[in-house]
TrEMBL record:
It holds the Pfam family Flavodoxin_5. It comes from Mobilitalea sibirica. This is Flavodoxin. Residues 8-134 form the Flavodoxin domain. GO terms for molecular function: electron transfer activity; FMN binding; menaquinone-dependent protoporphyrinogen oxidase activity. GO terms for biological process: heme biosynthetic process. InterPro entries: Flavodoxin_CS, Flavodoxin_dom, Flavoprotein-like_sf, Protoporphyrinogen_IX_DH.
């Protein structure tokens, strides 16, 4: 078993999908797990490896400013970021997310992963339920919807969970080999 007390997994999760991945990572890497809402940059100075995971929303990766705004203080650490979203994992999506959330320098240093999560409308806060209702209305207006649009519309009535522990293997392998 990997044992690295100098590693930490930080997560932000609104509906539990990211938390599942974060717990699996902390377990497999035998390291500390911290809720990202409670962490400050000063809390991270004692770690060599920092793994940050959060849900993906219209504005990007939730709470990613913890990493990006404090990059100068963290750039000498082994940095890993994973985003969790409901859409299927595609290389072009992963590249778009990297480009949208990180500077060129950060993209070279930060190991980035996109993991498929799920969607459960009933777990959303009232604000996000409202926003997702607006998104649903927008999706219903799409002419000739593709499988992704139809799947998203169906998920409002039937929660979806695509999380699988095997999806963390690339992160675990990269951390263990770095």
């Amino acid at each position: 078993m990997y044992n690295n007390r100098k590693a930490v997994v930080i997560y932000r999760s609104k509906t539990g999908f990211t938390k599942n991945y974060a717990q699996w990572l902390a377990q497999d890497l035998n390291c500390e797990l911290i809720n990202g809402k409670k962490v400050k940059i000063s809390d991270l100075q004692g770690y060599d490896t920092i793994i940050y995971g959060a849900g993906l929303y219209a504005a990007g990766i939730s709470g990613i400013k913890l990493i990006t705004k404090n990059y100068e203080q963290l750039k000498d650490k082994n940095l890993h970021v994973f985003a969790v979203g409901a859409t299927p994992v595609r290389e072009e999506t992963t590249e778009e997310l990297k480009n949208m959330n990180f500077t060129e320098e950060q993209r070279k240093k930060i190991h980035f992963y996109y993991l498929r999560g799920g969607f459960d409308y009933t777990r959303l806060s009232p604000l996000y339920r409202f926003l997702m209702t607006l998104k649903k209305l927008q999706l219903k207006k799409v002419k000739n919807p593709d499988a992704d649009v139809n799947g998203m519309l169906a998920s409002y009535d039937h929660p979806l969970d695509f999380t699988k522990k095997k999806y963390i293997e690339p992160i675990v392998n990269e951390v263990m080999n770095s």
